[in-house]
Structures
1.
Amino acid sequence: METCILGIESSCDDTSAAVICNGKLYSNIINTQSIHFKYGGVVPELASRAHQQNIVLVVKEALEQAGKNIDQISAIAFTQGPGLLGSLLVGSSFAKGLAIAQDIPIIGINHLQGHIFAPFLREKDEDEFIPNFPFLCLLVSGGHTQLIIVKSYTTFEIIGSTIDDAAGEAFDKCAKVMNLGYPGGPLIDKYAKLGNPNKFQFSKPKIAGLNFSFSGLKTSFLYFLRDQIKDNKNFISDNLSDLCASIQSQIVDILLDKLLKAVKQTGIKNIAISGGVSANSCLRNKLTDLGLNNSWNLYIPKIKYTTDNAAMITLVAYHYFMEGRTDSLDIVSIAKLSSFS
């Protein structure tokens, strides 16, 4: 018997819906809100309004592309949090209304948990890929940087987190002081391809254990630019590629130094990366080399699944549903949801 889950992701500025049947992805529709680019960041009120305008058509298109009608859906999943509360409420309210109308269960999913399993998404014409548990996940996004031991689809242990900025925030803030625009991470990655990653050095954090810190590196970068611009007002434009390559390399080195330390402490050699920053070419290349040198089993998501998408939410919900785990209609959206339970 075919089990099909319809999933909705609306945690930030992407309205997305996906259908997964028997563990395989049949559709994944994403509507990205371009209105935020001119503001240099996401405007929460505009985001929630855009979700309201987009969600019906996005869900309709996801069902049509999957070749399914709503009567063939076994359950409806949605992102419970973390995220922008107004945006989350649009997705959860729509999911609840549709679930009531169809008399089918709902499943609220942690957005971060979705990111963790993005490397294992497989489309309907691909072989299903089951992770080897436990695996160690380096979750890096605009708002989160964590090291997590993943023991099953529903069991997690966070062993390291950032104490200040996330890696994605460091990329975006460094890009902003160079006037590169938003989002900054992909732009730094673009210019870094032509630069020398060893040209400039900045102050690296000295944080014990497995926690991360990026605020000191960001401040060092800012002060360095301030001092250089005093002597050459065109310093940034004259050295843009080298600046991007240098700051990118050092952010990536901080991430991988902690990952290597976590592997040594846990003995786990099944390694995954996920989140928006996992699309960074420097991170992917250095991790691949590190994995080869240390005989790791690497799980790296396809680029199209690194950003926010409903496919990753729906995949986790499918496994929840198969375990018999669903939620009641009184489940609430939580902007700062942190628990993986």
2.
Amino acid sequence: MFFLLVLLNFTFFQETSQIYLPQIRTFTNPVWDGADPWMTKQGDNYVCCYSANNAIFVTQSKKMTSRGEARKIWTAPSSGWNRSCVWAPEIHFIGGRWYVYYAAGISGPPFVHQRTGVLRSKSEDVFSEYEDMGALYTGDHPEDTSSNIWAIDMTILEHNGKLFAIWSGWVNQENTDATPQHLFISEMENPFAMKGKRVKLSSPEETWETGGSLNLNEGPEILKNGENTFVVYSCRESWLVDYRLGLLQLNNPDGNLLDPANWTKRGPVFQGNATVFGVGHCSFVKSPDQTEDWIIYHSKKETAPGWKRDVRMQQFLWNSDGTPNFGTPYPAGQRINAPSGESE
């Protein structure tokens, strides 16, 4: 009799354990088509921003792994400096409003006219109307706006109560887009105006960021971990399988951010493998419950040169010295645990 009771209790425990076993949500990469993925977390919402057909779109969702309905917030004008070639927008919430930083030009190819423009929302609603604040000055002579120089991929760093813009640009304005790209930094007067002259922060000089047909530093993105501040950027050719990520680390957070000697370069910190090609141009967000760090990035769909790309995401960890450990890209189709706190 005693043995029978034990057996019945064990069977009941097994059945109830199966009933209440938590279900772990998973997803697979890639998550959607596209390039230059920009995702930011505002409250409980994930906001994405992208360009298509010379227009800029925004989505908002409670999930990282699926975007909400896309709404067009801006269309390039029929004339002017920004009428064509709208690239890689980012959206930032600063001082109660949304600011979109994007690259555009008058024509292309060749893409020799690219400059950086700014849009500003009329309220804290990400889907509100946006006004065009014009082009930012990214040259060496702020007193002469006609001397503006090629600039793309601008991002914003907020540090110790100050705003800084970091972007990819040319040393001089050129007549060919086969021109090396560098990272520049400038302090900002406000979210739509520079305060001073630009400073060259990084050039493609290391062996792991050179060696191809065109040496590039582009797609800078800000990543913070406690007191540590990083600029994670893309290098090598964006149309080839060797596209990868490098990193700049701010040495002294109380020092001069406009001094290149206050930054240390290392890399590559994330690169492709036998099944995932040309990884780059990323953004970073926390999981819904704030316990995990995730990288959102794009990769090439094929090994042939070109810009057919899709968007991927995966969790990353931190090394003991406070630097990010991005690991290796997961192959397409591999089941990945969904971000912690993400519901059905």
3.
Amino acid sequence: MEITLEQLAALTGGVILRGDPQTLLKGIAALREAGREDLSFFGNERYINDLRRTGAAAVLVPVNTPLDVCGSALVVCGNPSAAFAEVVRRFRTPPRQFRPGIHPAAVVHPSVKADPAKVCIGPCAVIEAGVEIGDGTEIGPGCVLGENAKIGRDCLFFSRVSIYHDCVLGDRVRLHSGAVIGSDGFGYEFIGGRHEKIDQVGIVQIDSDVEIGSNTTVDRARFGRTWIGEGCKIDNQVQIAHNVVLGRHVIVVAQAGIAGSSRVGDYTVIAAQVGIAGHLEVGPQITITAKAAVTRDISSKGVYAGHPVQLIRDHQRQQVLVRRLPELVERLRKVEDQGKF
């Protein structure tokens, strides 16, 4: 990477707040590690001390950043994190290159619809009968695609991804190692003293531009579909149960779990270790903070927290009162000792 400060400002749509426009930048790094030829960015107030101490040649900063905050050259832009990501995309060495072809150690059923000159199927992958794979898609080592699964264009499945039969995936879907799409929903009826399995005959539909992390599981529907909407980003070790519907551009963070038949609206954020009970409706543009337990429908926009979940301001008030309990108990004891209670 070699880019001048002037070129950086043009690339990111920023304005040079301080520094020589011809300053040459040759690397990228975090504020703490950046050296005298590196570019970094400041996008979160909690890292203000790192900004003050950074050795970076230049830093992308938000509007209203004071000139004297550090000794680096400063470029002001609307979203420093996004601008930094654009620089990384422009200059990084591509982490992988698409090389079409079917590895000799892959097992591909003759009925599979895929152009060997336009797809990549890695070693030990198993592609079962009736599968359709769009051009530009890469299937990593050890992946298994079940019968009649349909995969869109330009998808990327890392090693050991499992996609069960009849699932439907859109374009540019990215699945990380160990993800399982379309395993049976967890459905049983207690009959005659035994848990009898209920057949799960639906599918999983994943729309375009979805990314799903390692060891996340998306269960097939009991009937109909479990549906992951366009642009959703799902972290590692998430459980999404049968017949769940996620709207467009939903974020689900690590170790969250969504029980069967619940629905989540567009642009909602579900933080780490959140639990959502079954058959609930969570509206659009809602944020649920870490470890919250959702046991009722939520329709109003806002930030929610706690167990059971409530608006975060109400939860915080309760937490203040809980922390005061020892003091309040001691005051009550003194009142009782004085015989005034």
4.
Amino acid sequence: MKQVIAIIAVLAVGLGIMAWFYRQSAPSEAGRALTVYCAAGVKKPVEKAAEAYRKEFGVTISLQYGGTGALFSAIRVSKSGDLLIAADDGSVADAKRLGLIREVVPLAKQRPVIAVAKGNPKSIRALDDLLRGGVRFALANPESASIGRTVRRVLAGRWEQFSARALVLKPTVMDIAGDVALGAVDAAIVWDATAAQFAGLEMVRVPEFEKAEENVSATVVATCAQPAVALRFARYLAAPEKGAPIFASSGFRPAGGDKWSVKPTMVFYCGGVNRPAIQTTLKEFADREGVDLTTVFNGCGILCATMRAMAKTPDAKVPDAYYACDVCFVPPVADLYPQAVVLTEADIMLAVAKGNPKNLRTLLDLARPGLKIGICNSQQSTLGYMTRGMLKDAGLLDSVMKNVCSQVPTADLLVNQLRTGSLDAAIVYDVNAKPAAEHIDTMPIKHAGAKAAQPFAVAAKSPNARLAGRLLAFMRANRERFEKAGFHWRGDESAVASKDIVVPDYLKKAND
């Protein structure tokens, strides 16, 4: 018995320590309040999730319901609030364009259906059946409700015909679903998730709406004064262990949120060339999201080798996101990072001491006897890999390598060596050279490969995939920082499949 008591005592102490550590590491939000503008059709699951969140974290959620158009007006007039939960992607796009919202966290999916009374007494099987004589149907106003907006878009030129025949046009989807349930109308076009919330209704799915799936999304209001608190609740709503089952029980299809954590830890691997443009942005992002962001800067050869080793280790987790120095270092990890978005380009330059005392202007000049040349290591860095490729393609690899006295993982180290006079010349990125413009000069290199394109990729199995996607969006929103650092912007391009990225033959041959 004494042994049992001792074990219980040890367990109690251990649990107490764990609870203390959780309180110290988790953000304290008890007593806080959030104002959430919520589309009427999403009321049931959001209300239930908000109450669960209040009980768990002590945060009061004040919910204001209405049609999307009315909610937009409320936000514009009040210039207040923390979250807007919208029921369709078009409304989210409009809110962004109007500057009303910032971050977007998808919660669930839904699509339009025809709602009818149980048993479908009017035998409505197709969209055109609504236009038959004796069928009373309702529509939602597209100026105020997301479902109305979506239906108008899908019907296109036929919208006027249907809206003219509708018995009523009401401001929210719940209004018209309720009319069917009460028998005031025979049918209404509503969200499938809305129809599922009324016991007396059944759905008629029609082909016109099958491809009209829309996201329900939690979005942070632009004037929100507590974005980390708001985003934490948004993550809770989307999390598969928290809000997602609540949405599913109300007829919604969860959109796939990140694994729940009060304060997620995200690991980000980043090529060294990108450091000057993103350090401030990364800190701002971590503070705004209320997350821990662990960033590792290094040459991409080193980063790729590390990630490949991780992938072979049982239970090891590769970094959530990877921002490479060039697309040529994405194919080696294409299975881990299946898609990439090119954000920027950086020019590769020949750098020399101020005034260019050795009169070095071309790659050929680097082969002169007696020079001290610095390059990046071809196994460790993207720049080294590309430098070796250019030199070999130009027939200069052996002659220039005789002068190479420094091979390093990142170009910033070469810039420092130039400044101290230990090198006569180095091949670096323009963005590394710009901050040292008082001390060094640069010349363009006349070779098609003298530029690198920087891609951003999210790990296929990341538990923080949505968070990593928001980091990409945050970086895109700070384009001016990249351009100020000397990068050329390409961040508006679409994602490409990593496996389809082709490394030029001259690079592959030079580095085999």
